[in-house]
Amino acid sequence: MKINPTEGNNLSLPSQDDFSSFFSSLDDSLLFDSFIPAMPPRKKRKAEEKSPESKVKTITHLVSSLLMMDEEERSQQCELEKAEELQKSVLDSTHNLKTEAMLQYDSQCQDHYSETLTETNRLRAKRGRMAAVAATTAAAAAKGGDAALQQQQQRRLWVKNRSRAWWDGCNQPDFPDSEFRRAFRMGRATFDMICDELTEIVAKEDTMLRAAIPVRQRVAVCIWRLATGEPLRLVSKRFGLGISTCHKLVLEVCAAIKTRLMPKFLQWPDNEGIAQIKQAFESLSGIQNVVGSMYTTHVPIIAPKISVAAYFNKRHTDRNQKTSYSITVQGMVNPQGVFTDVCIGWPGSMPDDQILEKSALYQRAEGGLLNGMWIVGSSGYPLMDWVLVPYTHQHLTWTQHAFNEKIGEIQKVAKGAFARLKGRWSCLQKRTEVKLQDLPVVLGACCVLHNICEIRGEEMDPELNYELVDDEMVPESGLRSMSSMQARDNIAHNLLHHGLAGTTFV
């Protein structure tokens, strides 16, 4: 553009050529800038300097990133699908269990309803039959039909017919006495005496629906069960009675024996009897004023539901390698092996000295009943003013050995009596089906029956001999009286120096 000065300081306008050249240059600059963005010169050079290999790497990195993101999304989707399937299976299983429980409950309700309905119908039918029988009986009695009345009374409407062939055979007069003795551990005469004594207590009257079980059969069920120790199902087959009936008869007869026969056949001797016992034991051992031989045995039982630890017998368990529970029977016998005192029912974990302290014999002795008299016990009892026991310490003298031999002869009387008790009544050798609270009555009945057999001279079959095994524990406090220790030493000295001691010790 050219500006020429003119007069009056006026500027001249640009010409058309000048505008054309300006717009031409402006268009070239805009066109160049539209294709190449504005950037610093260095960045342009760097972008131009990028090679094709770097571009390929960048693209590859982007593609791999996209693939990884896609793979991760697919794995998340799979996990979600698995979780949904697991949740669905759990829901289905829960639903199936609930459905099964509901169906089972519904089935039980239906069974219970059907059983209740059946029982109701049975009771209604039974009442109807009883009413019909009563009506028929009344009509027959009114008409004077004695034969019809007797026939109605003999009917058994709900008693199951069972065979009584074995008992009927035993009850015949021509039944061999040896077989009868083997079955009931006593002769027929002794059995008849027991039946006569118990008739007043155990006899029952006939009813309109069934005849009462005879006294002889009731007593036979009890004695055979005690003698053999067989389970109640076999007793039921032998005597043609129900199992529950046999169990009830055993308990009833045992209670009757305790009530009626124990005061007659198991009692403390009177003054005359004590004098005879002293003389017999002195003749046996040379020891004066001995009125009884004492021993404690264990009877196995089923593990009780309460106080299990108290009845656990550790000594029997260790010896037999089998868990054992027991109750105890403490008894004192006279020279003939007849019980004069028993203490029954204390737990098997208790030692002999503690059982003695809890017995009625201990109370009577502490009250002065045994002043000046001795009861001989084993090493499981303590030495007391009225209990004489053997020496238990080591390195015994000749005098003490001789004393132990003589006192052992007295102790054999009690052990022999308990061996015959368990051999004759086999129910004492194994666990029975009797409840724990009923066992003292059953064991007491066995002791009474033992006394009856011993008093009446009933011989025991040698096949029934029983080996008595009872572990004796020396008490912690074996000496309860210094005067008794001096008295024992004097007895031992007199036995040796008066020629009454044994000669087996050399």
Topology of helices and strands:
Layout: H1 16-35, H2 41-49, H3 52-143, H4 146-153, H5 165-170, H6 177-184, H7 188-202, H8 215-228, H9 232-239, H10 243-265, H11 271-285, E1 290-301, H12 308-311, H13 314-320, E2 325-333, E3 339-347, H14 352-357, H15 360-366, E4 374-376, E5 387-388, H16 398-424, H17 439-455, H18 482-497
Parallel strand pairs: 1-4, 4-5
Antiparallel strand pairs: 1-2, 2-3
Helix pairs in contact: 3-4, 7-8, 7-10, 8-10, 9-10, 10-17, 16-18
Describe the structure.
With about 500 residues, the chain is an alpha/beta fold. It is about 60% helix and about 5% strand. The chain has 18 helices and five strands. The chain has a five-stranded mixed β-sheet. A hairpin with a 5-residue loop joins strand 2 (about 325-335) and strand 3. Helix 10 crosses helix 17. The longest helix is centred in the N-terminal third of the chain and has 92 residues, at about 50-145. The N and C termini lie far apart (about 165 Å).
Highlighted features:
506 residues, alpha/beta, five-stranded mixed beta sheet
How large, in whole angstroms, is the Cα Rg?
A: 53 Å
User: Helix/strand-derived class?
Assistant: alpha/beta
Largest sheet: 5 strands, mixed
**N/C terminus separation:** 165 Å
How many E-type strands? 5
Please list the strands of the largest sheet in the order they lie side by side.
3-2-1-4-5
Parts with pLDDT < 50 across at least 5 consecutive residues: 1-11, 26-40, 151-157
Overall geometric form = flat
Average of per-residue pLDDT values: 83
Number of helices: 18
Order of helices and strands: HHHHHHHHHHHEHHEEHHEEHHH
Tell me what portion of residues adopts beta-strand conformation: 5-15%
Share of residues in helices: 55-70%
